[in-house]
Amino acid sequence: MINFSFEPRPEDASWSPDWRSEKPELIGGDFCLELFQADVHLVVHGVDLSVRLPGLPVVDFALLLEYAWKALETQSDVAVETSLTQHVYSFSREAETVALTAEYPPRKTELSWTELRELTDRAKSEAVRLITTAHPELRDNAWLREKVGAPPDA
Phi/psi zone of residue 2: left (φ > 0), alpha (ψ -120 to 50 degrees), beta? Predict the structure, then answer.
């Protein structure tokens, strides 16, 4: 069983309904390096891989998982890190399972190939849902829609 959620960081002003970007259109660097930071609650088959670090944008984490999943289609091992916090996750793929190792805290677990894909899809969907719930005006953001996904009920 996999438990996953993002918990928006209260000190990140971009979650506030009153927040407005000074830029006319937000792009990848804004979403992946600066805005919409959260703690990640992730428990995979009883192993807690949660991350509570300032500077972890939800989009960065979601795209980290997507990159790992795509890379594992053609290679057996990949290490990926979050852009700002440099939190490293290592993935090793066998025929039907993927070993997932977190550097800090040092933890390791296994999940199925299907579970990794479902976790990736869920992280992307949840990132978009949280962002567009906080800021409905971002539902039409071209970069967010193309790289992460369309908001729910779009």
Answer: beta
**Which pTM value belongs to this model?**
0.94
One-letter identity of residue 22: E
- Which 8-state DSSP code applies to residue 148? T
Non-local CB neighbours of 56 within 8 Å, separated by 6+ positions: 37, 38, 39, 40, 82, 84, 85, 87
Q: Please give the C-alpha separations between residue 38 and each of 24, 134, 142, in angstroms, as whole numbers.
A: 24, 13, 22
Contacts of 117 (CB under 8 A, 6+ apart): 69
Q: Tens place of pLDDT for every residue, the chain, 154 residues? A: 999 999 999 999 999 999 998 888 999 999 999 999 999 999 999 999 998 888 899 999 999 999 999 999 999 999 999 888 888 999 999 888 999 999 887 899 999 999 999 999 999 999 999 999 999 999 999 999 999 999 887 5
